[in-house]
Design brief:
Blueprint lengths: L5 H8 L3 H9 L10 H14 L5 H8 L4 E7 L5 H15 L3 E7 L3 H12 L5 E5 L7 H8 L5 E5 L6 E4 L3 H13 L5 E6 L7 H13 L9 E4 L3 H12 L7 E4 L2 H13 L9 E6 L12 E4 L2 H17 L7 E3 L3 E3 L9
Parallel strand pairs: 1-2, 1-3, 3-4, 4-5, 5-11, 6-7, 6-8, 8-9, 9-10
Antiparallel strand pairs: 10-12
Helix pairs in contact: 1-2, 1-3, 5-12, 8-9, 10-11
Length: 339
């Protein structure tokens, strides 16, 4: 059967097509003076015919899609899905849907994903970046794009962004460990590129200096970003004759891999070694022992990113805005006094 049109609705309701359009596009504000009786006839005709708005045609006419493009790094880390949950809940509450794209773990593939997403019919973009080294063509494409752009990032951006850094949280975590008597604190530094995670690495060094402890580069083991990488890095650090009495990992997944490495070495956590991470992913509350971690409030970051984007849509010429993410130190069972 032919899909009902506004003309069909107008014929059944006994009104003009323009009146049908006014009722559909001005349902609550009633800026167009239409009598309640006329509005009721139009709505009854819509129900009788099963008429549905053609969202694509409406978007072409208005220039709005009510859709936000979101780029996610393709990590196994559920922290990013927590951010996406915040984006999705805020977008839905504001009447927007999402178009998701992902980038895998190379700068070249991320660049391609950004290009493809920027070419889609969306009202704006939210970018969660795995790498910040854009090629000049991609940078220019984003600068001259008609799309407002918001980043969620640990490094400065020329666009509106939610600054998701762990510097202060790392200082608090280190202060907790040092207060527990730990002087040899290892760092499982699992990153794809050295530019990642520098907020935590720099704060780790600063905390040692503040406490009068020397920085030992041998206690910082850089590895890949996957759990197997973190497991083998922790196994290396904890197998040494002078092993660290505490380990921090760059995220909770690698911290949980470190728990496994300690168990395989028959080390008790936290009696023999304390272990902590970052992100406060849901699994940390179910691990044995429960993991001490620094929460980055990911769902709030996602909601803030949507709000920034909608502000930019409403006022394209407003000054750039930066929202600084909060953090919370969650002290649980995996950290204790130094042996």
């Amino acid at each position: 059967m032919k899909r009902p049109t506004q003309v069909d609705v107008a014929r059944i309701a006994g009104v003009s097509r323009a009146t049908v359009s006014y009722v559909l596009n001005d349902p609550t504000d009633q800026r167009i003076p239409i009598s309640p009786e006329t509005r009721r006839r139009v709505l009854d005709a819509i129900a009788q015919l099963g008429y549905e708005i053609d969202a694509r045609a409406q978007a072409l006419r208005s220039g709005e899609t009510r859709t936000i493009g979101v780029l996610l790094p393709m990590y196994e880390n559920p922290f990013f899905w927590q951010i996406l949950l915040g984006i999705a809940s805020e977008a839905e509450a504001c009447g927007y849907s999402l178009l998701l794209s992902h980038s895998v773990l190379t700068p070249e593939q991320q660049t391609q994903s950004i290009r493809e997403l920027a070419e889609q019919r969306v009202d704006g973009l939210i970018l969660l970046m795995g790498f910040k080294e854009f090629s000049e063509p991609v940078t220019n494409q984003l600068r001259h794009s008609n799309h407002p752009i918001v980043e969620i990032t640990a490094t400065p951006s020329e666009f509106d962004y939610v600054h998701q850094g762990y510097g202060e949280g790392t200082q608090a975590l280190m202060a907790h460990l040092i207060e527990m008597g730990h002087k040899r604190i290892g760092f499982v530094f699992g990153v794809t590129a050295e530019s990642q995670g520098t907020d935590r690495l720099n704060a780790y060094r600063d905390a040692l200096e503040t406490a009068g402890l020397s920085y030992d580069e041998k206690l910082v083991l850089q590895c890949g970003e996957r759990m197997d990488d973190g497991y083998h890095a922790a196994l290396d650090l904890l197998s040494r004759p002078e092993r660290p009495t505490a380990l921090i990992a760059i995220n909770d997944l690698l911290a949980m891999a470190s728990l496994r490495a300690a168990a395989d070495l028959e080390l008790r956590v936290p009696d023999d070694v304390s272990i902590a991470g970052f992100d406060d992913i849901p699994f940390t509350r179910c691990s044995v022992p429960r993991l001490t971690t620094v929460s980055g409030l990911p769902e709030q970051n996602g909601r803030d990113a949507v709000r920034l984007l909608l502000k930019r849509l409403a006022d394209p010429d407003r000054p750039r805005e930066v929202i600084t993410s909060g953090w919370q130190l969650q002290i649980r069972e995996s950290t204790g006094r130094a042996p």
